[in-house]
Amino acid sequence: MISLLTICIPTFANANIYSFNKNDVNDKLASTTTAPLWDPISGTIQDQKGGLIPGAVVKVKGTTKAASTDAEGKFTIDAKTGDILIISSIGFTTKEVTVTGSTLGSIALAESVESLNELVVVGYSVQKKESLTGALSTIKGTDLTTVTSPNVQNMLAGKAPGLFVAPGSGRPGAAGAVIIRGQATLSGTTSPLWVIDGVIIGSNPGDLNPDDIESLTVLKDAASTAIYGSQGANGVIIATTKRAKSGQMTIDVSSKAGFTTLTNGNLQVMDGAQLYDYFSSFANANTISFPRWKPELRNSNFSWWDLATTEGFNQNHNVSIQGGTEKLQSFLSVGYYDESGAIKGYDYERYNFRLNTTYKPLSWLTVKPAIVGSRRSVADRQYSVTSMYSNLPWDSPFDENGNLVGHRSSSWVNSVSTNYLYDLQWNKSKNNNYELMGNLDFDINITKNLTFSSVNNYRFNTYSASGYTDPRSNDGQSVNGRITEYRSEYTRRYTNQMLRYNNNWGKHSLNALAAYEFNDYVGKTLDVYGTGLLPGFEVLDVVSKPERTRGGISEWAVQSLFVNSNYAYDGKYLAQVSFRRDGASNFGKKYGNFFSVSGGWNINRESWFKTNLINNLKLRASYGTVGNRPSSLYPQYDLYSVNPAAGYNGIPGLLISQIGNKDLTWEETYTSGVGLDVAAFNNRLRLTIDYYIKNTDNILYNVPISGLTGVTSIWQNVGKMQNKGLEVALGGDIVRNDNLTWSLDVNLGTNVNKLTDIYKTRNLDGTYTAKPIIIGDGLGIAGSAQRILQIGLPVDTYYLPEWAGVNPENGLPLWYRVTRDANGNETARTTTSNYAQATQEKLGKASPDLFGGITTSLRWKNLDMNAVFGYSIGGRVYNYSRQEYDSDGTYTDRNQMVLMDNWNRWQKPGDIATHPVARYNNQDKGNSTSSRFIENNDFFRMRSLALGYNIDLKKYKVRNLRVYVAGENLFVITKYSGVDPELPANGESILFSTGPSIYPMNRKFMLGLNVSF
Which CATH number does 39-108 carry? Predict the structure, then answer.
């Protein structure tokens, strides 16, 4: 018997891991002669998209036999027909499969939402999802790339509740602006803080390649953001990039390319015939007297839109290689993004590379060096966006022989205008940006429970831009040509030295950290103009006159000490506290303190909680403070500027440029919130609800003062505001089985803003009153909308003359004239056609009442579909473009828009019309700034739709091959009369107003390929 056992053992070794006993063998041998005890059963484990799952565990139910899948997702285990295999893998729902034969083919595991989020990256640490006490949202990197963009900000729209994104424009490379839980400041950026792999980057992620992102965590409440202190008032977005895992080397390739077209929304400008008929309808058409005013003008119909637009091209390619041993793992990626604009003449190109390495030379030491680089370039000879809408269809840039006409051509109706195409023969600009960032991080395991972690980062960025204006061009004629050169570079250093403590004993769990952090910035700029040159020479050496020479240096530094502690008892009761002390160079009171306290209750872990329908039920609550700094550097000091205009005898003089405020301190936001997390029906239903109140104190504002000293404002802490809102994320797997999975996720956010205090000014009787402050809308155009800062109102409240419609008797425009008593209460309301008599009124807020996104995905066997929608309700935008393109005849030197279907123009007495009478050179003021041009911008948009198919090529050593087609921005449902209802962005700010130069959003059609080896 001993010799027989010796013979059998090699046969058993074909299974990976299992156990047996002597009696089992004896019983089996007694009933068989030469047959093996079990048959080898094989199969392949993959995810729902056909991707292979290495390291999955396969067990025979009721025994200790187990095996694991190899790098190609394959396994072999000894079992018999009728046995049940239990298959499990981290991030996937455990599955049971009955053995029906020697091969089981491909077995698909469904993603487990609870497991995928088991470990969540939060501020300076990683926590189990069930132990979180803060409000946050996690976004997988694979969920970002449903939208093709080089900028991560644009990919966030609709992905998380409470996250509002203005997309910017369709111009290649344009980055959107992001607001988390409403505007919390009156000055400076409203963008969240970006943290990439533990390094504080700033208010935008730079040239982070979206394909390198493993996950994003959006931190929203005080429990999550207070650990970032003075930089967390606008929320925090933590980006974690991909890192290698030990095991066989893998290569992943993603490639997609396609074309783009412009979407013009509801703004349609007139063709030649429509414009002629419009002019002919003027009440004073008999006064039109320009030379070409003849019926034949109807046939002059040049399309400036067709001239400027084209089919743009877009391509994005990424290759990553990863692998390693238990001691050394490396992840290397290179990426290329290229897009030519759908408006001719603008090309955007970017290269990225990343090398993340983890090295464990000793059991107690882990070293994590990384290097990241990018190059971004733009070639700009773009056709005029404004001219696409404004230029008259009666005027052509070409003469009858196809040659370009010059400026102020006598053949044009608008003979005072220039032909921008004539200038584009020569004029151009370009810019390049290089960024290099390196990390040398390491962890030292001091004891089993204590670790020292060090993050050290250096970032260098250099940007250059040049422009050439030819002496023959319109802009270059007066100065005989111009050459511009701009250079900027900056360096940022970041270091964080941290002690981490983790311990579990009995029913207790404690995680704590204490750290010192330092971050500084040094930036330099050089700005040079030169004029007077010969055509074709494009370097400053050739200019005859130095028109402008400017340059500057900016520096700041921040250092911090902070602690954080998380405690859990029996997995039921959770508590977290954090404290941070920040010091910044640009304050009078340099140091500020910030804290948070929060708690959670995992109700489903209570012994009395008996239902099996609920997988998770958690109640959360938090309170804490975060801060904000002013946008200005060194506002605490009296500053002087060197001004050549104040010089004497060729020596520049000094003029006071800033009055300092040594008492200036941090803007603080106190946030309280409660939340509820629910998962039910085997995690098929998921619900998260959060309610919050944010109170901002010591608002930083540049307060106007008398200009006797030459300075007209001073930085002060002068006000308070409140934001409160509700966020809901609801998702579920409607169908989930082996062959078909259909999931649907909906998120929504709402935020109500209110100014609760502002600075006071002195009255004639010596008392002080907080009077309303009138501000602009940031559009930078004279005659655009104004807003009002008044206690009790949202900070984005419009303040304009109120449109009262059209007088049905004479077709004149009407506005309201409101009379109020000494307390501001309305006592009378009349209408007037005299614009000067119209009163300024408070006319509602700009920000939406409700916004969010909808995501649905469908998988059937090897076919998958994914769709993303976005929506916004209750927002209002000031459509300034209508002041020019819907001007009732005031502007006769630019084209006009076709009226919307539900609009009509006054023609005769008794008409009830939306538009007043049109006249040539109209002076009725109907197109002056008023609520006539405030429009609801509610919309429902399909952001993306992708259809993919997974092809099985494992026999060719291809782990996964997926081909797909995708469309982006396929439709939008809206009544907004402009180009696009989504709000424009200006840098990191959201404007809530649109100007006459609107770069439309693109519609993209892409063909993609993902391959893994």
Answer: 2.60.40.1120
